[in-house]
DNA sequence: TCCCAGGCTCTCT
DNA sequence: AGAGAGCATGGG
């Protein structure tokens, strides 16, 4: 039987794309890696596997045309991260952080999945966030070649917080349901926020119960492709006061969201 | 056991 | 407007 996983091709000479850094830096929670360094994941109903090989990346599960059609945008391959790193490196600490995480790319995740994931992330730790999301997909997503799709807002809108008990999200269950219902009813249109004024988008997102400025910024950065969003979590606040006198250097402001990811990855790396 | 986690809501000043 | 408790759950 021919399956789509038989498809394979090699992405040549890719810069600033380290799979481990990009897929396990805390921006997405569903990618996993096996012992041989092969990363696998599902977005919508598309499954792909990737493996770093020097300056190349070995891709399985789709052909080049399919990759260019969908995944190239997901992995933000048209953005010149080298140029950004160069521009923000006039600040010594920013330079260290950016070089430490120079293989990070900001994924363009599905808006609903990003919003829902970061609602779950509040006052939580990353291993547990992953567990809750995994259970959410297993319980309410659709099975697909050994993976599960991320459940749609429509699917979750039909449930109650009690129905989410099996995923053990705690007090966040009611927030997930409120978000799902606002999206499903059309009260909130995530797509339209991609190009909205920042303050307008922030206010719209914060109309969801359990969504404050941090989760809203994450939804914008990771789900709406907005690098003007700058999520301030406990780690970033700590880093800002410890290394940056409270605010981002001016050179990093145009790339605030990307700078934020470098700092997050860097300071957490220092802990270990 | 205790502390904390990619925060937010609610209440009390 | 600002401070602080409470929140569900479980990893370290």
Provide a short characterization of the protein structure.
With 272 residues, the chain is α+β, with helices and mostly antiparallel strands. The chain has helices at residues 19-23, 64-74, 81-88, 92-100, 111-121, 126-140, 153-157, 173-185, 198-205, 213-223, 234-243, 256-271, and strands at 8-11, 32-33, 39-43, 46-53, 56-60, 143-144, 147-148.
Give the terminus-to-terminus CA distance: 45 Å
Please list the strands of the largest sheet in the order they lie side by side.
Answer: 1-5-4-3-2
- Beta strands, count: 7
Task: Provide the β-strand percentage band.
Answer: 5-15%
**Measured on Cα atoms, how large is the radius of gyration?**
19 Å
Please tally the helical runs, counting DSSP H or I stretches of 4 or more residues: 12
Helix and strand sequence: EHEEEEHHHHHEEHHHHHH
Label the structural class.
alpha+beta
Q: Considering DSSP H and I runs of 4 or more, what fraction of the residues is helical?
A: 40-55%
Mean pLDDT: 96
Summarize the main sheet.
5 strands, antiparallel
Outline, from the CA principal axes? Answer: globular
Uncertain spans = none
Q: Would you mind describing this structure in some detail?
A:
By secondary structure, this protein is an alpha+beta fold. Helices cover 45% and strands 10% of the residues. The chain is built from twelve helices and seven strands. It has helices at residues 19-23, 64-74, 81-88, 92-100, 111-121, 126-140, 153-157, 173-185, 198-205, 213-223, 234-243, 256-271, and strands at residues 8-11, 32-33, 39-43, 46-53, 56-60, 143-144, 147-148. The strands form two sheets. Strands 1-5-4-3-2 form a five-stranded antiparallel beta sheet. The protein has a two-stranded antiparallel sheet with strand order 6-7. Helix 4 packs across helix 12 and helix 5 (111-121) packs antiparallel against helix 10 (213-223). The radius of gyration is 19 Å and the shape is globular. It starts with 7 loop residues before the first strand and ends with a helix. The mean pLDDT is 96. The structure holds a DNA duplex (13 and 12 nucleotides).
């Amino acid at each position: 039987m021919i399956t789509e996983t038989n498809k394979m091709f090699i992405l040549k000479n890719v810069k600033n794309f380290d799979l481990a850094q990009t897929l396990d830096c805390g921006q997405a929670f569903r990618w996993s890696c096996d012992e041989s360094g092969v990363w696998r994941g599902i977005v919508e109903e598309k499954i792909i596997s990737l493996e770093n090989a020097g300056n190349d990346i070995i891709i399985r599960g789709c052909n080049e045309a399919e990759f260019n059609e969908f995944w190239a945008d997901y992995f933000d391959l048209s953005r010149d991260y080298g140029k950004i790193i160069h521009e923000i490196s006039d600040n010594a600490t920013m330079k260290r952080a950016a070089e430490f995480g120079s293989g990070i790319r900001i994924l363009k995740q599905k808006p609903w999945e990003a919003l829902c994931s970061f609602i779950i992330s509040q006052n939580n730790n990353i291993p547990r966030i992953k567990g809750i999301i995994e259970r959410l997909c297993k319980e309410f997503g659709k099975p697909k070649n050994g993976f599960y799709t991320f459940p749609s807002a429509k699917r979750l809108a039909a449930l109650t917080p009690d129905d989410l008990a099996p995923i053990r999200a705690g007090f966040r269950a009611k927030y997930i349901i409120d978000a799902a219902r606002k999206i499903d009813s059309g009260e909130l249109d995530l797509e339209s926020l991609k190009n909205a004024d920042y303050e307008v988008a922030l206010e719209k997102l914060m109309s969801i119960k359990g969504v404050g400025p941090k989760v809203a910024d994450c939804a914008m950065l990771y789900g709406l492709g907005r690098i003007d969003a700058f999520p301030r979590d406990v780690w970033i606040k700590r880093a800002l006061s410890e290394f940056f006198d409270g605010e981002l250097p001016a050179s990093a402001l145009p790339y605030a969201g990307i700078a934020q990811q470098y700092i997050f990855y860097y300071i957490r790396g220092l802990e270990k």
